[in-house]
Design a protein that fits this description.
alpha+beta; about 70% helix; rod-shaped; about 300 residues; five-stranded antiparallel β-sheet; 10 helices; 5 strands
Length: about 300
């Protein structure tokens, strides 16, 4: 077989330059037609940049990684789909058993959510409608905030219930201790331990024979003072526990009743003014170069075949 070098190939092709020019012109025209809105629907890209705020640390994930998980969750995807009727918008047959698979593929193709080098998150959405692209970006941010707030309130509700149980238990202990102290005080007519101790001591100095009432009080002070002191210390501790759970519940209620945002939007969703796809010049260039290459191969092949014959 005869070997061809670059010079030989050029010598074969150059005589057919007029044909190649025609091929190039036709390829350019074909590229313009193929890349026109009539054939390929243009897509517009809207994006936003957000930072995480008001998120609590979870395991070893950073707040950015946590927020990224929320953005990419199935719940957010379903909420956005329902809010903007994306299944219908993407022209997916709702009666098809594979509609969810088709939707997920389309969503993955048109929606991009990624962390940046600066620990922020960029949300980018492509759509045939520039307004819809912007609205979907806003919807993703809003639905993510709603989801996080819903889950947070569920956890807070659990915390409130658990603390209420502990509060009730502490309250029961305080009531029980109060009941025990009140019984001792009533039995021995003890109102103020310190004052009555001083008073009984003075009475004993004056007259060793105390009245029946004072004698009963003196007996109670001698036999039950230590127990009263112990019960007083225990009830003080239980009241401290009660107040702790009460404060915890108040704090949880404050968080539960208020709504906060978990995204700090540093770049609001943009309304694109130019399409991002298709890149017409690139399509025209690829079609033209491919056509010219094929034409050159055909010319070389035909010349080689002619020489062989």
């Amino acid at each position: 077989m005869e070997n061809f070098n670059t010079k030989d190939i050029l010598n074969l092709i150059l005589p057919h330059w007029r044909k190649l020019v025609i091929v190039a012109i036709l390829s350019v025209l074909a590229g313009f037609i193929i890349s026109s809105p009539m054939v390929i629907k243009p897509l517009y890209k809207s994006y936003a940049v957000v930072y995480p705020v008001n998120l609590s640390p979870s395991s070893e994930e950073s707040n950015t990684e946590q927020l990224l998980q929320w953005f990419n969750s199935e719940e957010v995807k379903k909420a956005v789909n329902k809010r903007f009727h994306l299944t219908s918008h993407y022209k997916i047959d709702s009666t098809d058993d594979r509609q969810e698979t088709f939707f997920n593929l389309k969503y993955k193709e048109l929606v991009s959510i990624n962390a940046t080098l600066y620990e922020s998150i960029e949300i980018a959405v492509k759509d045939q409608s520039k307004e819809m692209a912007r609205d979907i970006v806003e919807g993703i941010i809003e639905e993510t905030n709603k989801l996080i707030m819903t889950v947070k309130k569920e956890r807070l509700h659990e915390y409130i219930l658990n603390n209420q149980k502990e509060l009730k238990r502490a309250s029961g202990k305080v009531d029980s201790l109060k009941y025990m102290i009140d019984n001792i005080r009533k039995e021995f007519n003890i109102i103020d331990v310190q004052y009555q101790s001083k008073y009984i001591s003075k009475e004993l100095v004056k007259n060793p024979n105390l009245s029946e009432s004072n004698s009963k009080t003196a007996d109670g002070l001698m036999t039950r003072k230590t127990e009263l002191d112990r019960l007083g210390n225990v009830i003080g501790s239980e009241i401290g526990t009660y107040n702790y759970f009460r404060n915890q519940i108040d704090g949880y209620y404050l968080d539960y009743s208020n709504s906060v945002s978990f995204t700090n939007v540093v770049s609001k969703p943009t309304l694109p003014d130019s399409k991002c796809y298709p890149i017409r010049s690139l399509i025209v260039a690829i079609i033209t170069l491919s056509s010219l290459l094929i034409a050159c191969i055909i010319i070389v092949f035909l010349n080689f075949k002619q020489k062989v014959d």
